[in-house]
Design brief:
The chain has a three-stranded parallel sheet. It has a two-stranded parallel ribbon with strand order 4-5. The radius of gyration is 16 Å and the shape is globular. It has one domain: 3-Layer(aba) Sandwich (Rossmann fold). The longest helix is centred in the N-terminal third of the chain and has 16 residues. Helix 1 packs across helix 3 and helix 5 crosses helix 6. The chain is mostly helical and about 130 residues long. It is about 60% helix and about 10% strand.
Length: about 130
């Protein structure tokens, strides 16, 4: 297995650089033919959401759709996929960032009672204690 950086997924999802898009498509096609998988770390997912929001100005619904398609891609192995899916569901509906929700789920898995935060967007969110 090999890992992918955020920019690989950005090219794949946005098709904003034709030359690099072809490289990524070829890479994914070859991997599928050889039954190889690429690791996508939680950090890459968080960075990807940030890039799609900040640089590409995409809305939550568009980002959620894109991440959903990544979760279904046979060539990608998403780190802690179950937690990433839960975070994505919260991100679809809630006001906070995807990374915040994922942090909360990772902390729960680690046995934490809650996640302390100063982020007001998380006030009232189960698993978080907003300090204000």
């Amino acid at each position: 297995m090999r890992g992918v950086d955020t920019n690989i997924l950005v090219r794949f999802l946005t098709a904003d650089d034709p030359e690099q898009v072809e490289i990524v498509k070829d890479l994914f096609a070859q991997a599928e033919a050889e039954q190889e998988r690429f690791n996508v770390s939680s950090i890459v997912l968080c960075e990807l959401v940030w890039v799609l929001r900040a640089q590409y100005r995409l809305r939550r619904g568009e980002i959620c759709s894109m991440l959903g398609s990544l979760f279904e891609a046979r060539v990608l192995e998403i780190q802690e996929k179950d937690l990433a899916r839960r975070a994505l569901e919260q991100f679809k509906q809630g006001p906070a960032d995807f990374a915040d929700y994922l942090i909360g789920w990772q902390n729960r898995r680690a046995g934490c009672l809650d996640t302390l935060t100063f982020d007001g967007d998380l006030k009232g969110t189960p698993g978080f204690t907003a300090l204000s």
